[in-house]
Give the backbone structure.
Amino acid sequence: MRNFNEHTITDAVLARVGGAGDPRVREISEALVRHLHAFVREVRPTQKEWEYGIDFLTRTGQMCDDKRQEFILLSDTLGVSMLVDAINHPVPEGATETTVLGPFFVQAAPEKQVGDDISGGMKGDPLLVTGSVSADDGRPLAGAVIDVWHSDEDGYYDVQQLDKIGDLSMRARFHADADGRFHFWSIKPAAYPIPHDGPVGDMLEAQGRHPWRPAHVHFMISAPGFEQLVTHVFVAGDKYLDSDVVFGVKDSLIREFLQRSPGRAPDGRTAEQPYFYLHYDFGLKHDARRGMAA
Ligand code: BEZ
Ligand code: FE
């Protein structure tokens, strides 16, 4: 087979990749070729534009290291991460909706006790968070593991300023109590722009988009027999809720961070100064794969 032209090249490539032994590799390869060729046919790039595209992807790869994952940022900002999330995490009644993980999760977060202050002395408005973890049928999940992380009052995570602050802060790992409950103190997070000093930032600018995410607190919650929940709780009223650069906002994940006066707080402590208060009840989805593996 030779002498391909604009009208024959796609079928020729499809025939070639159709020989893949693994049916899933074949399915993915064929779809990739069909959609990629359709894209090129629609856009009809000039040679220069094609070179720009190759250079863009090259720079995206070169920007990646153990701290920066520009390809995931590209997937996030093109809505692909949330599409993959939606496909893989249908949410039954009683389960909490999911959203993107983001690049600021740390595997080895400091273990804290329920009730601890995790702010690490960072400046900001005090925030009390109370919550519960249940199964989607309402049964409390004692001992559920709750990872939490959020930005400071200027919109920076600890890992973006470790040289300045020294230690991880505004993040922790808790174990829910016997009733599936937990609470902690920290500071109120702020909205922030995603890292936009690389090719993804160039793309956003060219597309006339801002790089901001509305203020939120991240949660990753696990319990044996349940799907791991990756989600955030967003601050109601944030001006970026309808234009989150990574398309991660869902109504069910927005809560008022209520302003409270000094005095007895919901956790029984006496707050010496005004503080914000967030409560959220999380629901975990039974892990369907467990039954299948047995
Ligand atoms: C975050 O919320 O931490 C995040 C999510 C996606 C891209 C960048 C940041
Ligand atoms: Fe975040």
Remarks:
- The first helix runs from residue 9 to 17.
